[in-house]
Every structure is written in structure tokens, then in C-alpha cells.
Amino acid sequence: MALADPSPERLSLAGEHFGIAAQYADYHAMLDRGDLDGVVVATPHTTHYAVAREVLTRGIPLMLEKPMVLRARDARELVDLADQHGVCPQRKSSQLNRRLQTLLQEVSLGSCPQPQSECQRGGRVWQ
To answer: Which residues make beta-bridge pairs with 64?
Structure first.
């Protein structure tokens, strides 16, 4: 796990709170690690496009907080990049995920420590 934040204060607080030692003042340096299983982009809305674009270009799975981006053409480009690089962009607040949460709460399945989902796009399936 790793964190990136340009604010030294926020970075230190988050790292301490979550017990994450790998901390970066620049997200580019974090992405350069090459060992990330995924990236959550929870930055100011105006930065979503640039950060998400770089993550997707590197072929790293992405969870993008809403709003996805501020312009429709940027959203289309990110979806196209995800398709090109075989990555499924995911938003935790998607209708599918909300429905899955409801179903899991309604049905007693016992312990479910690591739920998984699939994203189907253009005939391709990502888990």
C-alpha cells in the first residue's frame, strides 16, 4: 500500500492513521513503483482527469471517485484508455455496487472478507 498527497501534513496524518509507511508527495513517484494492484483517485474534481489518465495509461486498475471528470469528452477518453489497456475503471458508488451491497445485507452469507465483482465491457470481462 502507498499514499500520495502534496500536503506533508495530510500525508503524514493519513499514513499514521492507516499505518502506511510508503508515502509520496508526488503521485507520479508512487505510480513509478510499478507494484500497485490498483489506485483510488480521491483528489479534487479538477484533477481527476489528469491523474486517472496517467493511471489508466500505465494499465493500473482504477477506482475513481465521483464525479468521474468535469467534461464528457474527458470521460470518453478515460473509458477508451481503459479499454485499450485492459483495465476496468470502477466507481464505488456505481449502481451495480450499490445493488451488490444491498443484496449482501439482505442475505446472510456468513463472513465475506474479500468480495469480488466483474466488469464487462465490449465483450471483455475483468474481475
So the answer is: 41
Q: pLDDT value at position 127? A: 47
What distance, in Å, lies between the first and last C-alpha atoms of the chain? 20
Cell numbers linked to 62: 482504477
Q: Which residues contact 40 (CB under 8 A, 6 or more apart)?
A: 63, 65
pLDDT tens-digit readout, 107-125:
665 555 555 555 555 555 4
- Domains assigned to the chain: 37-93 (3.40.50.720)
0.85 exceeded by pTM? no
Sheet containing 62-64: which strands, arranged edge to edge? 39-41, 62-64, 89-90
Contacts of 117 (CB under 8 A, 6+ apart): 96, 97, 100, 127
Assess contact for 126 and 119: CB atoms under 8 A: yes
Percent of the chain past pLDDT 90, that is, above it, reads 43
Residues 58 and 31: beta-carbon distance below 8 Å:
yes
